[in-house]
Amino acid sequence: MTSTPPEVLPVGRRVAYWRGRRRLSQQVFADRLGKSKSWVDKVERGVRALDRVSTLQEIATVLRIDAAVLLGRHIQPAQVIERDVAVERIRAALSRYEVPLGRAAGGRPVLPAVQVARQVTHAWITFQHARYLRVAELLPELLADVERAHAADPVAGRVPLVEAYRLAASLLVKLGAPDLAWLAVDRAMTAATGDRLLVAVAAVQLGQALRASGQGREARSAMLAAAYRIAPPVVEFGLPPELSLCGTLLVQAALAAAGDGDAAAADLLDEAATLAARVGDGHDHHRTGFGPTAVELARAASAVESGDGGEAVAWHEKTTARDGWRWLPVEHRAAHLLDTARAYLQTGDPIDAGRVLLEADRIAPAEIRHRPAGRDVLAQVVRDPTAPEMLVHLAATIGVG
């Protein structure tokens, strides 16, 4: 027996459906609305009508959905709803202020800094495997744990705190919420203040958030300031972690410059390549994946930002033949494949754009299904009549058109 899709249910049944999806009992739901359990029951059974817009909006807010969903209008694809829920979950976590407000921790113990550091590492690995919604599930409790651990032990808890905020910012950029990402990275920068290296670590995500918000000049300025602040006086004497971080900041500055049409992007990437040669491939210092391969991928991304799809494709074909390509995290490779799809579209080649999108979906489905940038590229590809049938089916399945 097939179930009725939520979009064709009466409004009361839609309320019951979404309450169930949010795992709220009628009593908890009623408490959050400031209503009685009996009121909720009557609404869900259709005995009581929902004829006030303000009430519908209150219900939608508690259920973390758009009021239009309750009315059966403009139903969003499941992947978009899941992404929006993930963003709201993180927004709620960033809004708690448990430590400064002295709020109770809900019975959870304060964990040692070394334990929360392991949790942060696990969450970062999950992100690098492009399991974005899983990271969104982990982040609320993880942020609470690192904040309490830092309050209990400011010295040992500082790095896990910064790393957790960095992770939140990286994920939020992926999920298309740059303003909220900026909030997370602002907290990382504040927590890192006083430690030049830790500030530079947090600045990587600052660059991402600023670029995603369209603030290319600000991103370039901040990245160069952070990079040159930690740059070794003599490159040959620099340590790989330090060189990786400095080089990654130069890459971020170059991408910001390319987005603004600034020819200085090429010089910045040349400078980063010099550092990358000293680091080599196969490393992931400070979660950067920095090395010669990463710099060449950045050259491709820079070309895409400049509108030179042909050059970007050439860098793609050269770089993905390197051993270092296979050593990069899945998230990094999938993001590059999205850039390459854009490059093929710039050259008028939707067939190859579709081919690399299929590869991205194979290794990291969330990059296409949950990332707005991925969905946008997919929508462009499937408009072409020669688009691969598998992509057309994927687009129809996830509501992209």
UniProtKB/TrEMBL annotation:
Domain of life: Bacteria
Cited Pfam families: HTH_31
InterPro entries according to UniProt: Cro/C1-type_HTH, Lambda_DNA-bd_dom_sf, TPR-like_helical_dom_sf
Gene3D superfamilies membership: lambda repressor-like DNA-binding domains (1.10.260.40), Tetratricopeptide repeat domain (1.25.40.10)
HTH cro/C1-type domain: residues covered: 15-70
SMART domains: HTH_XRE
Coiled-coil residues: none
PROSITE patterns per the UniProt record, alphabetical: HTH_CROC1 (PS50943)
Name this polypeptide is given: Helix-turn-helix domain-containing protein
Native species: Micromonospora harpali
